[in-house]
Structure formats: C-alpha cells, structure tokens
Amino acid sequence: MKDEKLEVTRGSGNVFRDVGHKNADAEQFKAILAAEIIKALDREGLSVRAAHDRTGIAAADFSRIRHADLGRFTIDRLMSIINRLGSRIEMKVRVRRAQTGAREARI
Fold it and tell me: Taking the alpha carbons of 33, 35, 39, 45 in that order, is the dihedral positive or negative?
C-alpha cells in the first residue's frame, strides 16, 4: 500500500443518489424528516411508548423510525408525525437541471 494512490470521489450531497437509489431525492427527504422526529423525541425525552401516548401513533412506528426502517412511511406520513409531536415544517424547494439533462428536485 506504500505506493498506492487513493482515488477520492466527491459525493453529490445525497448518499442515496451516490449509491444508485432510484428515488434518491424522496429517500433523502424521508431520512431528514425521520431525523427531525428523532430529535423531537430526544429533546422531549420521549420513549416510543410515551410518544404513542402523546400522539396516538403506534409505538412500533416510532421504533421503526428510530431504526431508520422507513420503507413503510410516506413523506406525508412522516410530516404528519412531526406535526403531532408539536413541530411545524418549513421547507424551500429548488429545481435545477441534472447533469444528465433530466429534471431534479433538490429538497
């Protein structure tokens, strides 16, 4: 390894795109929303059961979010959970051309 040179590739800013996910922008947005839910739970010191008691959302759903098992969740469902936890979402959307010529939504 003495003379080996490492090639560094700069990421796109979206890990899901970098690893080839088809719906990379939506997956990243879901991950951001899930992280905000986890922050709210931690800030309030809520267990998944306490979060269930407060919101009526299944404790198992909060457990899935904590474990980044987001396949069952839609973006609007995650937004609804954030709202039920007492937070509001503010976002800006910028659309720009992708380098391949396709349209890209950056969230």
Answer: positive
pLDDT digits (tens, 9 = 90+) for 45-71: 999 999 999 999 999 999 999 999 999
Specify if 50 maps to a domain: yes
CA dihedral defined by 63, 65, 70, 75, rounded to 10 degrees?
130
**Which CATH number covers residue 81?**
1.10.260.40
Q: Which tokens belong to 62?
A: 């909060």
Pair 28, 107: CB distance under 8 Å: yes
Model confidence pTM above 0.70: yes
